[in-house]
Amino acid sequence: MLDLPTVARGDLFSAIGDHEHVLFFHDPDVGLKGIIAIHDTSLGPALGGTRMAPYPDLEAALFDALRLARGMTWKAVAADLDVGGGKAVLIGDPEKDRSPELFRAFGRQVHALGGRFYTGTDMGTRPEDFAYAYQETPYLVGLPEAYGGSGDSSVTTAEGVVGAIRVTLEFLDGDGDLKDRTFVVQGLGKVGLKVAHRLLEAGGRLIVADPSAERVDAFRRLAESFGKTFQIVSPEAIYDAEADVFVPCAYGGVITEAVARRLRVRAIVGSANQPLAHPGIAETLKAKNILFAPDYLANAGGLIQVADELFGPNPRRVEQKLSVVLETLRFVYRRSDAEGLTTVEAAERLVRERWERRKRLNVRYRPDVPPKWRFRR
Q: Does the reported pTM lie above 0.85?
């Protein structure tokens, strides 16, 4: 167990709130330290990725795990999946601290939960990391096809984000065509670069920013291969760029009150989890007539793909479920407009209504049967 020097006991339990299970683990022999947060398993096992980052302290790691686990529950319910929300965070620099031994030790921590939590890649982790974890546990998703998985889930996440952008422009203008629209893409990582690729293919104009020179160079080569004009700005200047859609594809919490007042866009649609620093910022965006796509609808593609692995990978089934989520986004926009709500309020009301309805149906799962046949009604 990890020491909790920065979190007072009362504050810790207050922070955990409605989460079912929070596990702190530490293996000093391999440098492993981290947290698994399970928010809800009333509809199925908790599912969420594992991110690795050099958190400044344990409190920061804990709050990241808790907020992301809760967000995964909302995302699963919004996509009508038979899973709950969970998240794992590993404390360390992914460029310096990752090792086969560390991920094998992490796999043992996942396995000890007996199927209550499935995980895979997220920010700071790679599929090959989980090839080592797979030596210790089968409770993994998003593995390469050689391991029985469905492959890179960032592809489906990017497809969902671009689909959400089309739905958003369709709501604003009656036309979801991306050609000759301007998009500001923040972050050119696993998902961001794929989103940028699809926007370029569709004829969009791009303004991008990323602190990594390597990722910026990868984008530059991509854009030049399309013969497209583009603009690269500093990570701070990205918030002042004028465009149709701001596409956050990096860390969450980037849209603060100050940033919201600076934005010169008509909509925000991206892959970043919880990009608003707090829910109240949705009111600021609404006052500025900036349409915000709730993140757990815009970026649900990856979760849909990896959750589908529990039944055996099926690309057609994933495609159908993704189309349902995009239709849900249309409904949220219409409800927000009709009832004078922010899109955050409209989405949360819808998800809570669905969640309560699903729980009343008593849809449960059995942790004592093989993973792919875990569910029953």
A: no
Annotated binding residues: 187-192
Using H for helix, E for strand and C for coil, what is the string for the chain? Answer: CCCCCCCCHHHHHHHHCCCCEEEEEEECCCCEEEEEEECCCCCCCEECCEEEECCCCHHHHHHHHHHHHHHHHHHHHHCCCCCEEEEEEEECCCCCCCCHHHHHHHHHHHHCCCCCEEECECCCCCHHHHHHHCCCCCCECCCCHHHCCCCCHHHHHHHHHHHHHHHHHHHHHCCCCCCCCEEEEECCCCCHHHHHHHHHHCCCEEEEECCCHHHHHHHHHHHHHHCCCEEECCCCHHHHCECCEEEECCCCCCECHHHHHHCECCEECCCCCCCECCCCHHHHHHHCCCEECCHHHHCCHHHHHHHHHHHCCCHHHHHHHHHHHHHHHHHHHHHHHHHCCCHHHHHHHHHHHHHHHHHHCCCCECCCCCHHHCECC
- For residue range 292-331, what is the model confidence (pLDDT) as tens digits? 999 999 999 989 998 888 877 788 889 999 999 999 999 9
> Per the residue annotation, which of 33, 75, 87, 286 is the catalytic one?
87
Q: Is 33 a catalytic residue?
A: no
Domain with CATH 3.40.50.720 in the chain: 154-356
Q: What is the pLDDT of residues 127-140, one digit of tens each?
A: 889 989 999 999 99
Annotated binding site for NAD(+): 187-192
- At the fourth CATH level, the homologous superfamily of domain 154-356 is NAD(P)-binding Rossmann-like Domain (3.40.50.720)
Annotation: CATH topology of 9-73+83-149: Rossmann fold (3.40.50)
